[in-house]
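User: quick one, fold this
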Amino acid sequence: MTPELKAKIDKIVTDNKVMVFMKGSKLMPQCGFSNNVVQIMNTLGVPFETLDVLDNPDIRQGIKEYSNWPTIPQIYINGEFVGGSDLAIELYQSGELQQMVEVALAS
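Assistant:
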């Protein structure tokens, strides 16, 4: 990954309290896993931003290196990598995701 791409991803992740790198947009997810994450965030009723990796091949590959996580979607809360769709479901069901988001939005 180039230093420029790393800096770009750093800025995206730190500028947004809740950031989801996904296939498609929150209005039109392009895969089931991305849709799962959007539905969870919508259910929580929290503001979140998305970036469509299908529109940006550099970020699509770069985000996998950045997080050392091989799949999309990827969720970042308060600049920290949280996980993908499966982890989001687990954290949502346990109530931990709600707490993480509330802490991030309060900071």
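User: anything notable?
Assistant: Helices lie at 3-15, 32-44, 57-67, 85-94, 96-106.
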